[in-house]
Amino acid sequence: EEVDELDGAKRMDQKPGAGFKGGSLDVRNLGMAYGELDVLKGVDLSVRPGSVTCIIGPSGSGKSTLLRCLNRLVEPKAGDVLLDGESILAMKPEKLRRRVGMVFQHFNLFPDHTALENVMLSLTKIKGLPKEEAERIAKARLADVGLASRQHHRPSGLSGGQQQRVAIARALAMEPEVILFDEVTSALDPELVKGVLNLMADLGKHGMTMVVVTHEMGFARRVADQVVFMDEGRVVEAGTPEAIFDRPQSPRLQRFLAEVL
Ligand code: ADP
Ligand code: MG
What we know:
Elements: H1 2-13, E1 25-34, E2 37-47, E3 52-56, H2 63-70, E4 78-83, E5 86-87, H3 93-99, E6 100-103, H4 115-125, H5 131-144, H6 160-173, E7 178-182, H7 190-205, E8 209-213, H8 217-223, E9 226-231, E10 234-239, H9 241-246, H10 251-260
Parallel strand pairs: 3-8, 3-9, 6-7, 7-8
Antiparallel strand pairs: 1-2, 1-4, 4-5, 9-10
Adenosine-5'-diphosphate binds near residues 34, 39, 62 and 64.
């Protein structure tokens, strides 16, 4: 597993031409409620093209809900989100989700399909590509994440780390402008976490715009261009990793860091 984990990062480094065209996001006064429960209370956030934004904060602070608003898995009730300057509220959700990919904590792979088929399915079903082209792209993306030799395995025959890399390959295959990651290493055995984080760091280096909800403070410090601390549906503090981790301003962030670091 370890050799295989590192393989993915190496392969990408060998392809200097394979840069991504990351898009920008502008979140403006975003509000969202589940029924009576106000979960996002006016979130503002700017994400530069090709940057990595890590979102940290206590459980229940609205991190997942914010990500879900960004590709409209849930509908905001106020405010707006601009993707490359264009309101996502004016887009068809299916179209938006081709441009803004998402990777989840529990992989969400189809258990009865192989790794290759899992990556191919969104290309044939959502993008409407012919099977041969979908297969060519899917194989290339699985190779990028170091899983060429595992392409015919079903999820049950793969480690958690490998399954998560299939999910990342599936997101990449759609050629999104932004990828959202929601605690993607939280369900992994500790020894598999590093490989997935290294792959994500590598995507960031290659210019993918990424918004990453994570408890991995080491990753946030090492990889993020911007760290955003959320609490109770608001952005309490945002800044460089140095500003957030070394010079936290608000008592709430200071308390949070004291608990998690
Ligand atoms: P986080 O990801 O930071 O833990 P969430 O965005 O998942 O926070 O949740 C924010 C708040 O919204 C919490 O109080 C949670 O209980 C509530 N919530 C999340 N999902 C739902 C849902 N589908 N229906 C009702 N309430 C929800
Ligand atoms: Mg969450």
